[in-house]
């Protein structure tokens, strides 16, 4: 049996590029907008990758034959475009030609993400899993790589901006290489746990200045390491701007941790990006960023998993609920709507499920439902403080296995259809207000989205 899905979404309009876009951050009083070629641009983004079932982080789509890459992009970008998504977050490794291909054929920009030492570095031929941002060789390597990246991609049609890092601040707490090594590329627990939460409240007066690191607590060590790290982020941004002044530089932080240090050290960074998982609401995020940073706010990861640990089953409606709540707040705080007016958009995490993320090197062809971290903000499946976040179930599209291990089919979940409606909202139209926003989101029905997902899977065609 071979399964094929019938897509009923429109293929993206073919675009002919005339050169790379000029992308700038526009500030008016305390509000921010992103502009592309002088036109207002709200980032309606998606974290996107392609990992066939049975593969893990060692797999690269970009090492496959061009014909296969093209078929993958055409198939998946049709679904992405149907969402109203205008930008992908993609890690470095993607060749320039495919950034332009995605833009030319599907009208979707790319934010290029360089991890900036997040998962370790090779120093003098030796792999070092814990990056020491105060080390002179590390500094030389990271700044050099950032500069080379900008030089290589600066004239690439379809490039929107650069993103440095991925929650690098969480890695500052690791005292041994084994703990860091075991994480590979999954997200760590949020700052609800242990010392991480304390650093939400840590300010510069509490930092131990001039003390030997061995005499400091874990919190204090992390704060000192943070200052070295964010200072280096800033140097990396400066090096990139010296090469490419047409595309903004953003950083990716874990929540709002070290925001005071970021304010002091990152003046060359254009956009404050953050991965935030707080449940249906971001709480005081918009107000705190506005009070602390003179920069636009961009959500580099938002979303929820689609598995309920209480019912031990897929829960599409809860994922759609959190997704809808997140994007309503993002739009409500865009320039001109009446909120904090400091957000320029965000990126949903993520497009399709990552079947490799639980153990990373075992059972790669199994969709594991083991929850690996606890987050009380996702209260619909919280039980006795047990873990409730399932790394392999964050996709707004489920993967459907086929007989060909290099392929899979995609089944849009309810969150897909909720996002599709959410992204129909245009925040920068002159007549739009908070009232229109409320009306628009009030008309998005979660249960209807679940029905649409079920209707989609009924359109799957089964052939011998």
Can you put this structure into words, describing what you see?
The chain has 464 residues and is an alpha/beta fold. The protein has one domain: TIM Barrel (Alpha-Beta Barrel), CATH 3.20.20.80. It is 32% helix and 19% strand. It has twelve helices and 19 strands. The strands form six sheets. The protein has an eight-stranded parallel beta barrel with strand order 5-6-7-10-11-12-13-16, surrounded by five helices. It has a three-stranded antiparallel β-sheet with strand order 2-3-4, with no helix packed on it. Strand 2 (23-28) and strand 3 (31-36) form a beta hairpin. The radius of gyration is 21 Å and the shape is globular. The model is unreliable at 1-18 and 177-215 (pLDDT under 50).
Structural topology:
Elements: E1 2-4, E2 23-28, E3 31-36, E4 39-41, E5 43-47, H1 66-82, E6 87-91, H2 96-106, E7 109-114, E8 121-123, E9 126-128, H3 136-153, E10 159-164, H4 177-183, H5 194-201, H6 218-243, E11 249-254, H7 259-265, E12 271-275, H8 285-292, E13 297-302, E14 307-308, E15 313-314, H9 316-332, E16 343-348, E17 397-401, E18 408-412, H10 414-422, H11 434-442, H12 446-458, E19 461-463
Helix pairs in contact: 3-6, 9-10, 9-11, 9-12, 10-12
């Amino acid at each position: 049996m071979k399964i094929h899905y019938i897509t009923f979404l429109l293929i993206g309009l073919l675009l002919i590029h005339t050169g790379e876009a000029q992308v700038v951050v526009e500030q008016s009083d305390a509000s921010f907008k992103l502009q592309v070629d002088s036109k207002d641009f709200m980032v309606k983004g998606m974290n996107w990758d392609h990992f066939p079932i049975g593969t893990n982080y060692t797999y690269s789509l970009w090492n496959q034959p061009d014909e296969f890459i093209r078929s993958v992009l055409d198939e998946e970008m049709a679904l992405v475009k149907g969402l109203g998504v205008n930008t992908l977050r993609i890690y470095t490794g993607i060749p320039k030609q495919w950034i332009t291909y995605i833009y030319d054929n599907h009208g979707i920009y790319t934010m290029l993400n360089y991890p900036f030492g997040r998962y370790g570095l090779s120093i003098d031929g030796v792999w070092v899993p814990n990056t020491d941002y105060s080390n002179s060789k590390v500094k030389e390597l990271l700044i050099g790589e950032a500069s080379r990246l900008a030089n290589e991609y600066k004239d690439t049609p379809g490039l929107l901006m650069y993103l440095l890092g991925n929650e690098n601040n969480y890695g500052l707490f690791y005292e041994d290489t084994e703990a860091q090594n075991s994480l590979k590329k999954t997200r760590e627990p949020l700052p609800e746990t242990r010392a991480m939460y304390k650093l939400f409240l840590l300010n510069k007066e509490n930092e131990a200045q001039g003390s030997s690191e061995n005499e400091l607590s874990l919190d204090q060590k992390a704060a000192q390491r943070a200052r070295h790290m964010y200072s280096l982020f800033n140097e990396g941004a400066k090096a990139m701007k010296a090469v490419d002044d047409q595309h903004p530089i953003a950083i990716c932080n874990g929540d709002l941790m070290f925001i005071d240090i970021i304010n002091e050290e990152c003046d060359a960074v254009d956009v404050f990006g953050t991965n935030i998982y707080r449940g249906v609401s971001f709480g005081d995020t918009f107000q705190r960023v506005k009070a602390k940073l003179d920069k636009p706010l961009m959500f580099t990861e938002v979303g929820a998993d689609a598995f309920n640990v209480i019912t031990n089953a897929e829960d599409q409606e809860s994922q759609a609920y959190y997704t809808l709540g997140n994007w309503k707040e993002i739009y409500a705080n865009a320039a001109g709507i009446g909120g904090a007016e400091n957000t320029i958009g965000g990126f949903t995490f993520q497009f399709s499920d990552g079947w490799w993320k639980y153990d990373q090197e075992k059972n790669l062809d199994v969709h594991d439902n083991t929850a690996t971290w606890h987050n009380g903000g996702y209260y619909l499946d919280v039980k006795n403080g047990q873990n409730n976040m399932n790394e392999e179930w964050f996709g707004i599209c489920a993967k459907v296995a086929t007989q060909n291990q290099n392929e899979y089919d995609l089944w849009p979940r309810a969150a897909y259809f909720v996002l599709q409606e959410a992204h129909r909202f245009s925040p920068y139209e002159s007549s739009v207000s908070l009232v229109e926003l409320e009306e628009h989101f009030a008309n998005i029905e979660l249960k209807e989205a679940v029905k649409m997902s079920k209707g989609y899977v009924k359109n799957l065609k089964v052939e011998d």
